[in-house]
Inverse folding.
């Protein structure tokens, strides 16, 4: 079992597992890891067989028979590591796919929140808040046209929307922004999805 395989087993330490997936999702880290992997392969290709022999001779293995015996053992060990790496990659893919399946409903829910709340409901609320004074001015004009004067309108606090509605819109806006923030955080937490981020959220209808 190689390192990657160990990181996607049920007994894996969650801290290590999360650190691994955070690194996988980090573009700088992933880019540098790919560079290192490429350079390792290029170094092995450049040094070739003579480089391998020189490495073993430098370790004091100089007899041909001893060299062959050591290289045979190393070839077997490396072959095993290659096989384990293939299994590790397969287990990684299986783990990610299983997580996607397990959290498919929550992923759909979070995506709908981001779309419906983030791109429809929040802009609508922001527009209502921006248009608050304008809406009150229009309402005042209608009340004046109906025969009331400014003193009557202001004295009876007749203008709509009123300050209570404005305060409610602002509270609602902050709540919806937090809702979207948590939905985005949930989507970004995969494949170790943090379902707690969506607790208390009702599934969107539609």
């Amino acid at each position: 079992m190689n390192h990657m395989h160990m990181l996607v087993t049920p007994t894996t330490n969650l801290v290590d597992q999360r650190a691994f997936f955070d690194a996988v999702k980090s573009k700088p880290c992933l880019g540098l890891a790919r560079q290192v992997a490429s350079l390792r392969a290029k170094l092995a290709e450049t040094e070739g067989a003579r480089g391998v022999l020189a490495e073993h001779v430098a370790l004091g293995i100089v007899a041909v028979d001893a060299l062959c015996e050591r290289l045979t053992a190393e070839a077997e060990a490396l072959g095993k590591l290659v096989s384990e790496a293939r299994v590790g990659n397969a287990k990684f893919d299986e783990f990610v796919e299983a997580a996607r399946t397990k959290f498919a409903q929550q992923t759909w829910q979070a995506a709908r929140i981001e779309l419906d709340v983030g791109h429809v409901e929040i802009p609508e609320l922001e527009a209502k808040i921006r248009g608050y004074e304008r809406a009150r001015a229009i309402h005042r004009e209608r009340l004046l046209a109906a025969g009331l004067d400014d003193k009557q309108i202001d004295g009876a606090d007749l203008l709509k929307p009123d300050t209570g509605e404005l305060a409610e819109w602002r509270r609602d806006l902050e709540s919806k922004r937090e809702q979207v923030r948590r939905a985005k955080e949930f989507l970004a937490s995969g494949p170790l999805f943090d379902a707690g981020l969506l607790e208390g959220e009702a599934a969107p209808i539609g």
Q: What stands out?
A: Confidence is low (pLDDT under 50) at residues 202-206.
